[in-house]
Amino acid sequence: MALAPTPLPGPQPGTTIVAPDGVSHDYLAIVRGLVPGMSIVQKFGKALDLDAADGFLALWPGTKGTYLGFSAVAGEAVTVASASANDAGTVLSSGTLTGGSATTAIDTAADFVTDTVAAGDCIINDTQSDHAIITSIAATTATFRRWRHGTTPAAGDTYRVVTPASTGAAVVRLQRLMDFTSGTLATEYIVLNGATGVDTVGTDYFRCSRARVVHGASRSNGIGIITATQKTTTANIFFALQVGYGSTMVCADTVPAGKTGYILDWGSGVVGNVNANVTSRLVAAPTGEPSQVQEEISARTAGTSTPLRVYVAPKNGFAAWTDIHVEGSSDTNNTAAAGWFSMLLVDD
Q1: pTM of the entire predicted model
Q2: Angle subtended at Cα 121 by Cα 119 and Cα 127, rounded to the nearest 5 degrees
Q3: Which of 36, 47, 306, 345 has the greatest number of beta carbons closer than 10 A?
Q4: pLDDT tens track for 92-104
Q5: Which fold has domain 16-66+252-347?
Q6: Domain residue limits, the chain
């Protein structure tokens, strides 16, 4: 008799959660955005060089040590720059949309042909924090397959059309920008200018745990390390996006205002060919309080283990403004380690 397949670790699509409206929903419905008041954030991070004498270090590829994105204690603009001058974009056209659809953007005051807009360029809807890659243009209309995040443009939305200025990345999408005053999250698009920093429009950010390269020459995701810091307090580094990845590897996040965070699962493992034992911790720091270790696990390459902690019931109930991260400690020099966690966010 054939045996039933063993479920993969982690939350399963059939696992249900009771939403604030009293209705049970599975995780897939939550991830699809079909459950009001609930969402799931999944974080992955990597430390590039753990040494035996280091103790516990945050699993992120920035400055070795603690996660410097949690050091910010006031709001500022965020500045983004690359280590390579070849990571840059040029804004060909910008303005205000007069209409559009799921596959078009229309500006009757524009002339995309005169502006030399072409297939393969990126159009950013700054009002709705969405973007698309253009497939064809007419004088007042840009056409594409879809807006990346499924929005429908409205008359009055501001936009920018960007083309790569060199051979590297051109546009970075900053996500989970947390406002210091309100604790709410925002998304902004940065058109890179090589080693010259480009600032966010918002000036009151003190957290930013995720970013992705969304446009580049020949689909390049970056030639140099792309770094984001606070504009004035530059020692507060939110991420150092590594060459070849196209997205941040920061195993850290902060519960936004109006939400409670519940950990669904977390884990860690050794990356690469080093034979090492790594102990990892899940750490939380409620607002104004010291860091508190929640759990601890060990990955042992002698047994090729990659521990994953999955909770039958979601763990804890972290209040808004709580900083959460995974950190690791190795018994062997030059160890690379990775960690991850999934968190259910529920409206208060």
Answers
A1: 0.91
A2: 125
A3: 47
A4: 999 999 999 999 9
A5: Jelly Rolls (2.60.120)
A6: 16-66+252-347, 78-87+167-241, 89-164
